[in-house]
Amino acid sequence: MFDITARQAKLIELLSKNEKYYPAKYYADFLNVSERTIFNDLAKLEGLFKIFDIVIDKKPNQGIKLRGDITSSENFIHHMINKVKADESASYSSLDRQVLITKRLLIENKTVTYQSLSMDLFISTTSIIKDIDRIRSFMDDEVRLISDVKGTRVQGTEIGIQKTIKRLAYYLIEQEMHHYSLSSYAKILERLFDKDVINRVFQSVQELVAVLDLSISEQYLKSLFISLLILTERSYRGFHLHDLPDIQLEGTEYLTNYPLAVEICHSISSHLGFHYTELEHRYISNQLLAHRIEVKVNNKYIEKLFSKDVQQMIADVSKAIDIDLTADDKLYDSLIYHVFPMIYRLKSDIYVYNPLLDEIKGNYGVIFRIIWYVMESFEKKYDVKLTDDDIAFITIHFQVAIERKEQMSQILVVCQTGLVTSDLIINRIKNLLPANIQFKLIAKPQLKDEDLSKVDFIISSVQLDDVTRPVVYVSPLVRDTDLMKIYSYYLEYSSNRKKKEDSELASSMISTYLNRRYIFLNEEMATKEECLDKMIHLLEKDGVVKEYFRTSVYEREKLGNTLVQGWVAVPHALSSMANETKIAIMTTKQPIKWNNESYVSLIILLAVAEKDIVHIRELLGHLYKIILKSESLEKSHFIKNLNQPDDLIALFQGQ
């Protein structure tokens, strides 16, 4: 009969509860709209009120109220309101609510109340509290929520607020199924940011790449885009930076990308009609360096600065994996180029998301954790904490070098008519796969005469019949979902990729590290902390680990996910925190929540002493083989049914 909006339903509710005159501004402020919108809504509602002999009484200098027999029509009005509430609440997911609350608190710097949010979102205050607690989980010590009689608002440094927004932006992106291209990032973030700001920043980043002809990782480009977007949105709204992180990194004076930062600022601000501050010019200059975009850098100076560290890193990894990579100039050059921006970024507390993290940890888990241990001295020297994403990027460099030592892989690229479309595919995947990959372009008609014996797999944009090698089908334009499929096929079908991870650890060495004293079976535990504390306590009591081992384990958990193969966790600490190498193992009666989404039933706590780092490849390789095997054992409840520590030791010895 009458189609009213959610806002109009809220306006009816407010009017029916107020017995005094209130100005239109009162309702406009409450509903976060203009006074003109309130008057337009009232005009549309006059017909509904007339049915019940209710009049909208407007008095100059006093305001608005309803006159008439409101009580007799109360049931119908409430029915209308509740119907709209029911319809509207179905459209608000918890993520929708969190995005809206985030925008008001962190983007717009508004003060909100649980009551107003409850009315706006048609949800209970209990749910609002949970949503705000979720938002609070993305904040660090620089930012906090203040609640008092005025409401709830954000308090903290501008840098801290922008870092929090970036974490929330990545969280929002990760909830979407298809989010791999820069344009899709921009589309998803329209829910948080002004569309004009998004379009201008997106265009400026595209212009930057085109003008400088940069061969830059897509993930660095996306991270730069998000950081620029957040800074611009906040500055556009009048919330400017007041300080920069105190990095104190030697060599920053040799950077000359400040003019480029000024050009980017001018490109964006001239279209949006505002001005960045001088401090924000410097901030963008820092962001360019941290994301590996620079006009000129004194490379000889940087090489001198990091040469010994990189050489030592390569030597340590070579020793641990028993593959000599010390003469690999490409590895050396790539690491020299990588580590300087990485340190600068970490000291600036800039986060770069690596979407291939899970694949890298799952398929190159041994080399991933070897690098984590090897980088310990590097972290100490430069006073930084590497995240899992950082270790994954370094792992890729080393994995490429390892594969250069092995047989060259060949991938065949097939298209309907040959090279034009094939070139599009090659250009999209050349930065995704290792440098030792040899690509061969071919048209479909020529496939019947091609020798496929040395081909690992085929990438094709057309349907193929009667081929003897695995085929991954992609669209002619190669979407980001196609890239993920290609990477998965590479992991599965490229020859020799796990050759060095298949070594078994001798039973005598496992016996040295595994002791029945540190095995806990079918424990009644409720939390992750209870599991870790019980295992660590015994290691501390026996003097196996040092005073700060416990702190190191928990810090490692904050930096990244220690889950392996879904239901198994392998927490660990810095090697300098262990006096001797021991492995503590716990199984639980009920799965334990390990992070926001995953539960584990098997925990393998590693205490690896510095003197045993040379054996880490064999140790991790053997453990990973058992963990992979344990997936089927978990399904059959084999491990859960183990009652004696010696039985578990026998399992990990491979007996």
From TrEMBL:
Domain PTS EIIB type-2: 409-498
UniProt cross-references to PROSITE patterns, sorted A to Z: PRD_2 (PS51372), PTS_EIIA_TYPE_2 (PS51094), PTS_EIIB_TYPE_2 (PS51099)
Domain PRD: 192-298, 301-408
CDD domains cross-referenced by the UniProt entry: PTS_IIA_fru, PTS_IIB_bgl_like
Coiled coil residues, start to end: none
Ranges of residues in domain PTS EIIA type-2: 512-655
Pfam families: HTH_11, PRD, PTS_EIIA_2
InterPro entries attached to this UniProt entry: BglG_antiterminators, HTH_11, PRD, PRD_sf, PTrfase/Anion_transptr, PTS_EIIA_type-2_dom, PTS_EIIB-like_sf, PTS_EIIB_2
Domain of life: Bacteria
Alphabetical keyword list: Repeat, Sugar transport, Transcription, Transcription regulation, Transferase, Transport
Protein name per UniProt: PTS sugar transporter subunit IIBC
Lineage: Bacteria, Bacillati, Bacillota, Bacilli, Bacillales
